[in-house]
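Technical appendix A lists one of the benchmark inputs used to test multi-chain prediction within the project. The record comprises two sequence entries:
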Amino acid sequence: MSNQKKRNFQIEAFKHRVVVDPKYADKTWQILERAIHQIYNQDASGLSFEELYRNAYNMVLHKFGDKLYTGFIATMTAHLKDKSKLIEAAQGGSFLEELNKKWNEHNKALEMIRDILMYMDRTYIESTKKPHVHPMGLSLWRDNVVHSPKIHSRLLNTLLDLVHKERTGEVIDRGLVRNVTKMFMDLGESVYQDDFEKPFLDASSEFYKVESQEFIESCDCGDYLKKAEKRLTEEIDRVGHYLDAKSEDKITSVVEKEMIANHMQRLVLMENSGLVTMLLNDKYEDLGRMYNLFRRVTNGLATVRDVMTSHLREMGKQLVTDPEKSKDPVEFVQRLLDERDKYDKITSTAFGNDKTFQNASNSSFEYFINLNARSPEFISLFVDDKLRKGLKGIADADVEVVLDKVMMLFRYLQEKDVFEKYYKQHLAKRLLSGKTVSDDAEKSLIVKLKTECGYQFTSKLEGMFTDMKTSEDTMRGFYGSHPELSEGPTLIVQVLTTGSWPTQPAVPCNLPAEVSVLCEKFRSYYLGTHTGRRLSWQTNMGTADIKAIFGKGQKHELNVSTFQMCVLMLFNNSDRLSYKEIEQATEIPAPDLKRCLQSLACVKGKNVIKKEPMSKDIGEEDLFCVNDKFTSKFYKVKIGTVVAQKETEPEKQETRQRVEEDRKPQIEAAIVRIMKSRKILDHNNIIAEVTKQLQPRFLANPTEIKKRIESLIERDFLERDNTDRKLYRYLA
Amino acid sequence: MDRIDHLFNQYANTSSNLIDPEGIEELCSNLEVPHTDIRILMLAWKMKAEKQGYFTQEEWRRGLKALRADTLSKLKKALPELEKEVRRQSNFADFYAYAFRYCLTEEKQKSIDIETICQLLDIVMGSTFRAQVDYFVEYLKIQNDYKVINMDQWMGFYRFCNEISFPEMTEYNPELAWPLVLDSFVEWISEKQA
């Protein structure tokens, strides 16, 4: 087109010049209508797509889109009504099949019709915003077939009936049902939900309500859970096979609610089969199943956890407060470790190492271990036993395992300072009697304690080891500079730094001449190289090995305590001695002397001394002589009495008192530290802060803290505020 | 001032130039007031007397000047007014603390023995808080934890009487900053009532 001529050339829309024949539209529609009939009657093979398409196209072009559209709707509706009647007429099982068949037919027909009417779809319908052909066809199906009164409820009931049958064990035609549910989904998600899913969920809810009630009356917990699990799996399977995927969460919620949530308490607390029974009998599979099922419902795990916690606490409480069980400390602790292991295994095997369960378990152990005030002492005795003999011959890695387990129990202790006191005592005895199985094991435990509690906790303990080592060096030096002494009795001295070792009062004791001479020589040697120090012999802690020849020539080496040595050596110079003579000669205090004589004269197999009279107790009028008839199948006989034991009641009171005394300065130091930095603080906060600071060592008593505060006020470290009596002020 | 000094000399010990316990006793009898009466303590407070049982000339002057009394009869008339003044809320706490300090006779003494405390409580608080004083005194006499009472505990009792209803004691909370001796006291009463 040349752009020179402007006005005369106008590009206009192509106008069809054909005069519109009013009958044209009718005629064309009739063609199409007939075609639709044929399509529905499965008789479409003779039709020409191209011709039909053009007809439809023409109608729209000539502005008869409206007629075409309404005609299409009317025709399809009529057909669907017919189809509906046919479906209604179907009997029994074939109802669904008919429905399904007609649905498939309809879809095929609809597709063809849509193709033919595509021009209308894209132009007329676009501009008028009416529903497109395909969606329209689905809506018509929905309204005329699915929602037809005679079909609607029958369809739903048929489906629900099938589901119910399958749930009760019958086999059903899953494919058929799948087609129907898919049909619902194709008709729209709301159709699926309203016409099928919601009633399905309600019916399922009813079903499981009834079933769960039956089960719970007749099954034990383990079986019930198995059944519940099975049902859940089934429902998930069901969804996979013939429901829409979005239904899975909804149906599983129903099962979870009816079978688990509604019966939670009853299941967990069921006598002889519930959680407690499972725990007691290590039923890992059942416990795992319970865990997996209960985690699906709100508060499910909380319920399980709570019951487990109260059981554990109760059982633990009984365990630690049972006087029978506290007779043997080592067994007591072993029992605790066994329980700990048991619950570790349960948590890891059945509860998937769930942290909340680990915490519940830990807090329960902490609770009941501290119910017995002797737990710190017993744990120390357990360790003592292991380090003395229990770990003999065990590989290093296994030793670490045992020590780590002990540390776990240690962490639960609220009174760690009490443990420290006992540990020190027991360690001292072990070191001094040379009775430790493995130095490495000892050191390893100290390291663990240091990591847990800090340097201060273990510095004194380490000092004890250092003293032992230094003493070895000192002995070497001593004998090195006194070669003439290698002939006489051998002296081994351990020099203990006061403050590192548990304090003991020095007990008077007259050593035999040979020994005291040696001791003096050592004293001068030592003080010669360490000026400004003071040495005092701890005669109540020493041991001696002495060779003895009895009446018939039996030779034995006796391992005895220092006191026992003093007594025995007296018999080198006298055949018979009275109690009073022995007492005078040795100057050992009466209670210690009596104990000493008892161990020498009254213990079967170790009675190297004979006593008159032969009573069990030592009387002040008794007479003693060497037991010439003494026999033992061992050459070396151990008669020493320096082993760590469970404390007697008065000893326990004493230790407890010392612990309490030690705590007072610690509390005061904490108060001063806190007040120095805060300057002013109210009462409740001081109590809280102090408790927190001291918690790694012991649980501070608020009344005790209050006492210390008042003491500090009296000594002018703190004062009360004049206006607000809840406040304390630090006085610099 | 002369008349005040003159009055002073009537009771003072000539060698020490102090009114000593004997002199105070005489003063009391002249005032017709028992010498254990609280008003004498109040007088000491007004004088800001430091040592129990003695008045110095300076303290005497201070007190009588403040009371505007230069004769014995004026002094006697001033006593009721003095009592009112002391019992005013704003002054009583100070007086109460003073009463304690007044009984600290030794240098560096910080606490007072139970027996003296009981007497002091009776004198100082007996008229206003009879019940509390009686109960507390009974408690102090039978308990064994405390042989002496310090200033902090003494003041604690004063706050107790003023703030806690007796004998209900519903407001009392041992977890607050009350002195421990009062915690024990309250506990003892509750056990008695149970």
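The first helix of chain B runs from residue 2 to 11. The beta strands of chain B are 111-113, 148-150. Comparable benchmark entries are summarised in Table A2.
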